[in-house]
Automatic annotation (TrEMBL):
Biased composition (Polar residues): 591-600
CDD domains tied to this protein: RNase_HI_RT_Ty1
Designated name of the protein: Reverse transcriptase Ty1/copia-type domain-containing protein
Biased composition regions of type Low complexity, renumbered to the chain: 445-459
Region (Disordered): 416-603, 1184-1203
Length: 1238
């Protein structure tokens, strides 16, 4: 055992089992059972001992598990780790469990400082029953169904009919959870039929009357008789209680009844048998109150399986009663994959909207022998049909929702063992008289919850074979919302209709959907005897039953007032007993306060949980809400079906315009439908049609393809293309401004549609429903290819161009546009492949592009000629000319002094406006800095933010992050620290956030200025702060400038801990230097080879190490990894000159320390470009002076700086230090002299 525990987790709980369990992997456990000799063994020949953790065969108990029960098998620390793992997984965008574990193990180096481990993910799967619900709801895809086995039928032996041609039916009523059910039993064959009576009335006092109409009883019996007749048996007698006297002469057989107060012993015995089976289903279920649909479906399942097996005492010794009467064959046990009452996520057909791909439901019973199951939807309480699902552990929220659905139907509580009450109690009326159901009753305020009869023997019929998988296509979001013509209503269709309509389902029913009224309130538990002939219970018994009912604490409503004092009499003379109100408790005012988190925690469960929004709220993780809100704000588009409902003719006109563009640009071609194979049709891309209302009120239509199905067919290298980086864009506008080039911006409309699909690529686009008609109206040639599939009009078109939505479209467009530019004589920049240059009349012409957005700078004539040529090749360009241009959401103002102002003012103002509206407050506090001096301090005792505030915190931190890399570089330091706090923000972080946002509001009109003294000299200032973060890691700050403002800057938490400030400085340099090298290489590709690339540092010890490498390391620095001397190698082999900068002039300190006062103001003005760099850094020399100094140094010394470094390396350590100090002092004197003369 000790050796086993070294490698695997071993678990044993003698209270639940004598076995112990070994977790051999993330998904499987081995069960070692106790043997008679006291040892433990594992049966390798039995697969039953190898269980999947997330299936219903959990080791916690027999059939299923609950989260609460699963947590008992782990320590508090392990449970907390599992919960944190699910939280972190959500904040990282919900990678799969396997991928998340690889990330946590360090593969790819994508995250650091993770508070959880891969083992926490494994425990989370064990506790919650498998993958996180968000992964299943958001990522589930339809699986190719297994080929259905042929439905086997059983032939009826002729000898059986010849020797036993007649049958006797025994009938009686039994009650489960106070509702009546009719049982019909064949005395010889022992085939049983169950009938549910779902018609009931709830009076204003809360009294429930169940109806058992005579015509429905007669119909059920005649159907049962006909079922026997069809198999050759003649029903000659129907035997029941004397309450069936009224059906005599109405049934197609002789009816005999027992004397008063006597019962049919055969039926009574069968009822006891059924009830025993029913109790087994409910054992260990965690529910205390259930909707009637669960009881109904449970009883139907009990009857089905009783008939499916051989019955002792039946005349059929070798075949089951079901085989005798219905011809049933064997049921495929491999398809029995879920247990009654289990919690499942049922797959719904994928739509191109934000609806979840799975529906939460409770398993009911198999719908056929081929793998289909019925579930009760937790959203609507109705029955849904599913063929694909994932089973999870039952959470407290699921239990609460089941209770809530039952309370809405006024269903009583289960007994103390969690089993439906299998009998009657006073307080419920049962009538068999049809006169009770009249117009007067229907108008007295009562509500009929059910209005049909369900016969168990016909509810489990085999389904017809479904459509072939090769021709299957999930419905698109733009499909007509008409139901299919199949008898079954599938999950996605029914759920979407139930979400779009509230009460219109009331009183209606399809085979798969049990209607539920939303207006019905919980009924009391008292039920009257089932008929007048049954002897009623004594008043004493009734009192006992009545006193056991608990009244609601929130019993309100005028209709309940004064009804407890007097008994009333109904129209039939039956006494109404006083009823205690069991009105459903009010839902919480803010459902978010009571939502159980996805990690198993619960919040404020002081009231009954309202499940109505659970489907949305369980997906309400920080990252998903941020994405959803950002999309809503930036892309307020909707499906075309929704758009047509709202905008009507305007939406249709917009789609016609879009389709006409596709047709005019020859994007789609006609193809013969009959020539298509099933595989080609299965791979066809669905047409996604969208409608968007623009800010100017115009309606725009968009047609693209759903390329998600291409991922497994398109190679990775063909699925992405280059885009211009922000760094390259800032460098380009700096060049344009310095050289005072003419700059233009233009957009290529429908860019992708210009790129031809290669001849070896065959792709189809599939239109459905009303969009087929629109496409045919645009181009009548498509009319011949229109067909009907599953009753729906479809049109397949061949895709000839790079249609939006196809995975390879981006690369096809890039290759095409790059080829066009190279044909015009442009040369692609090797560092950024979305920048190209050409020399025209001795002057450079430069173009940069981001997909279909382009910025070009050069001489006016050259720019105009280029735009004209591109416009001829791609007609309809949207062109901007002038000094003020907007490109990729950034405003550029090209000034006459060789500088450019960069701004995102409208974006900043809208962000502040949105935040104030979301908070319901005005940011009116004034601050002089965006941060306080204690920015880096973290108070672990500060209360965590609630979910709503945490979401706001993350959302606006990410919005600021977009602006800080473009126009507001002064925000990067403060916002970067807050980005490290988005995982678990607390109240202190919220104060820091609000301070930053308030400061942004006061500076919302500020612009960033970028300029260059020349394009051949670049200064990089890098600094680091040692052990300033809560985990003792350092912080790196850096700026890169050419004189005015910064080309780029860095403010980031270091990725490793360091032992000293010098060590921290080395790490910072190694982290920041790649940007310096990037700009050097990019500028060289642009034709500007740097003559001077200076790196300014304020740590003299680091300068020595950077110049001399390990020769300048003492014993205290030997621990520095070799990789840190990458900077030394680059400095020696490159064009980088390291110089000393006084600490109080180190502008990069703005990005390492929460500066205040004058230091903050001066450095901010420097990085924002409002002051020249030399104002803050006196050591900065003008490029002309720098060139002169270099010439004098070359003349006087006769050697280069690199030669000096080599000379240092030949000296001893002491000599090298002394010489270096003397050199630094001399350089400082020269800087001071140059600055004073300047």
């Amino acid at each position: 055992m000790a050796d086993l525990e070294r490698y695997y987790r071993v678990f044993k709980d003698s209270q639940h089992s004598s076995s112990f369990f070994v977790f051999i992997s993330d998904d499987y456990i081995l069960e070692f059972k106790q043997l008679s000799n006291g040892l433990y063994g594992f049966d390798v020949n039995s697969s039953s001992n190898l269980n999947r953790i997330h299936t219903s065969t959990s080791f916690h108990h027999l059939f299923f598990s609950t989260v609460k029960a699963n947590k008992r098998f782990f320590s508090n620390a392990e449970v907390e780790g599992a919960e944190k793992a699910r939280i972190l997984q959500g904040r990282m965008g919900w990678p799969s469990d396997a991928e998340f574990k690889r990330i946590l193990s360090g593969q790819g180096n994508s995250i650091i400082n993770a508070p959880v481990t891969a083992e926490d993910v494994t425990r989370a799967r064990a506790i919650y029953g498998g993958s996180a619900e968000q992964l299943i709801v958001g990522k589930t895809v339809r699986k190719r169904a297994n080929k259905k086995n042929k439905i086997l039928r059983t032939a009826l032996p002729s000898e059986l009919v010849r020797h036993h041609p007649t049958e006797i039916l025994d009938i009686d009523f039994f009650y489960s959870d106070y509702a009546p059910y009719l049982i019909i039993r064949g005395r010889n064959i022992l085939f049983i039929i169950g009938v549910t009576f779902n018609k009931r009335k709830i009076s204003a006092t809360g009294r429930i009357t169940y109806y058992r109409p005579t015509d429905e009883i007669v119909k059920a019996l005649n159907d049962a008789i006909a079922l026997h007749n069809n198999r050759g048996f003649t029903v000659e007698l129907v035997n029941g209680d004397n309450e069936f006297e009224r059906i005599k002469g109405k049934v197609n057989a002789t009816v005999e009844t027992c004397a008063a107060n006597e019962h049919n012993p055969f039926a009574e015995r069968e009822i006891r048998f059924v009830k025993d089976r029913q109790r087994c289903y409910w054992d260990k279920l965690p529910y205390k109150q259930v909707p009637k649909i669960m009881v109904d479906e449970n009883i139907i399942d009990v009857f089905y399986w009783i008939n499916q097996h051989l019955r002792e005492g039946s005349i059929a010794k070798d075949i089951s009663p079901g085989a005798v009467i219905e011809g049933r064959g064997p049921h495929d046990a491999g398809n029995l994959e879920v247990t009654f009452g289990a919690y499942c996520l049922v797959y719904r057909e994928s739509k191109n909207n934000r609806q979840p791909r799975s529906i939460r439901g409770i398993a009911l019973r198999p719908s056929n022998s081929q793998g289909g199951y019925y579930f009760m939807s937790l959203n609507t309480g109705k029955r849904i049909h599913g063929h694909q699902w994932d089973e999870l552990a039952i959470t407290d929220e699921v239990i609460d929702r089941v209770h809530e659905l039952a309370a809405k139907e006024k269903e009583g509580f289960l007994d103390e063992d969690g089993i439906p009450k299998l009998g009657l109690s006073p307080g419920h009326n049962m009538t068999i008289d049809d006169t009770d159901i009249d117009e007067e009753d229907s108008d007295d305020g009562s509500v009929y919850v059910y209005d049909d009869v369900t016969v168990s023997s016909t509810s489990s019929e085999e389904e017809p074979d479904g459509p072939d998988d090769s021709s299957y296509h999930a419905s698109d979001v733009d499909d007509d919302e008409s139901l299919s013509e199949d008898s079954e209503v599938d999950v996605s269709e029914e759920e979407e209709r139930s979400e779009d309509t509230s009460d219109e389902h009331e009183g209606s029913r399809s085979e798969d959907v049990e209607p539920r009224s939303k207006d019905v309130e919980p009924r009391s538990e008292d039920v009257e005897p089932r008929s007048e002939e049954v002897e009623p219970r004594s008043e004493d018994d009734a009192d006992v039953e009545d006193n056991s009912v608990e009244s609601s604490d929130e019993d309100t409503g005028s209709e309940y007032e004064g009804e407890d004092s007097n008994e009333t009499t109904d129209s039939n003379g039956a006494k109404e007993r006083p009823q205690r109100s069991q009105r459903a408790r009010r839902p919480p005012q803010d459902p978010l306060n009571n939502i159980g988190s996805t990690d198993g925690k619960s919040y404020m469960h002081t009231e009954e949980f309202n499940f109505s929004n659970l489907a949305e709220n369980l997906n309400h993780t920080t990252t998903r809400q941020l994405y959803s809100r950002a999309v809503d704000y930036m892309f307020n588009q909707m499906t075309a079906t929704e758009g047509i409902k709202i905008f009507q003719e305007r939406a249709v006109a917009a789609l016609i315009k879009e389709y006409k563009q596709l047709n005019d640009m020859c994007v789609l071609g006609v193809i013969d439908y009959d020539s298509l194979t099933a595989e080609q049709k299965a791979k066809a891309l669905r047409a996604i049609n969208l409608i968007k209302e623009k800010r100017d009120g115009k309606i725009k239509g968009r047609c693209c393809s759903d390329g998600s199905g291409q991922r497994k067919f398109v190679p990775r290298e063909e699925a992405s293309s280059s885009t211009m980086s922000v760094e390259s864009l800032i460098a380009l506008v700096t060049i344009f401004a310095f050289e005072k080039r003419d700059v233009a911006v233009f957009d290529v409309p429908g860019a992708y549609l210009h790129a031809d699909l290669p001849d070896d690529k065959f792709a189809l686009l599939k239109f459905e429903g009303q969009f087929v008609d629109i496409m045919v109206e645009v181009n009548p040639d498509f009319a011949e290819s229109v067909r009907y599939e599953k009753g729906k009009k479809v049109l397949y078109c061949r895709i000839l161009k790079a249609l939006y939505g196809m995975i390879e479209s981006a690369l096809l467009w890039y290759n095409m546009f790059a080829d066009v530019l190279m044909q015009e004589g442009f040369k692609i920049n090797k560092i950024d492949k979305c920048v190209a240059n050409k020399t025209v009349d001795g002057k450079q012409l430069t173009i940069g592009w981001y997909v279909d957005d382009n910025i070009v700078g050069g001489q006016t004539k050259a720019v105009t000629d280029l735009i004209d040529k591109i416009n001829k090749r791609f007609p309809g360009l949207t062109i901007q000319r002038g000094k003020k241009l907007e490109f990729l959401g950034i405003d550029f103002y090209f000034r006459g002094d060789g500088k450019v102002d960069v701004g995102t003012v409208p974006y900043i103002k809208q962000m502040i406006k949105d935040l104030e509206e979301e908070l319901g407050m005005v940011l009116n506090r004034k601050y002089t800095t965006p941060h306080a001096k204690w920015l880096f301090k973290v108070n672990k005792k500060s209360p965590k933010l609630n979910r709503e505030k945490a979401d706001i915190f993350l959302k606006y931190i990410m919005k600021v992050a977009w602006a800080m890399k473009r126009s507001r570089v002064d925000l990067e330091f403060t916002n970067t620290f807050l980005m490290t706090r988005v995982h678990e923000p607390n109240r202190e972080d919220w104060h820091k956030f609000m301070r930053m946002m308030s400061w942004i509001k006061t500076t919302q009109d500020d612009l960033r200025t970028v300029g260059a003294d020349d394009l051949l000299h670049m200064l990089t200032m890098t600094d680091s702060a040692h052990a300033v973060h809560n985990d003792m890691r350092g912080h790196t700050g850096q700026i890169i400038t050419m004189g005015t403002g910064v080309l780029d800057q860095k403010a980031s938490k270091q990725k490793m801990n360091t032992r000293s400030s010098t060590d921290c400085e080395l790490v910072g340099t190694s982290e920041g230097l790649p940007k310096n090298i990037y700009f050097e290489m990019f500028m060289e590709e642009q034709g500007y080879k740097l003559e001077s690339n200076v790196l300014a540092k304020d740590n003299e010890s680091e300068i020595k190490i950077l110049k001399n490498g390990r020769d300048s390391c003492t014993s205290n620095m030997k621990h520095v990894a070799i990789k840190q001397f990458w900077s030394t190698d680059r400095i020696k082999n490159g064009n980088i000159e390291v110089v000393y900068c006084p600490t109080d002039e180190m502008i990069a300190d703005y990005n390492t320390k929460p500066l205040m006062g004058k230091g903050f103001t001066n450095f901010r003005r420097a990085i924002m470009g409002w002051d020249h760099i030399s104002i803050s850094y006196t050591g900065y020399t003008h490029p002309k002076e720098r060139v002169g100094n270099n010439k004098r140094k070359a003349t006087n010394d006769g050697s280069s700086n690199h030669a000096k470094i080599v000379e240092h390396q030949k000296k001893t350590y002491a000599e090298a230090v002394k010489a270096q100090n003397e050199e630094c002092v001399e350089e400082m004197k020269q800087h001071v002299t140059a600055a004073s003369s300047h």
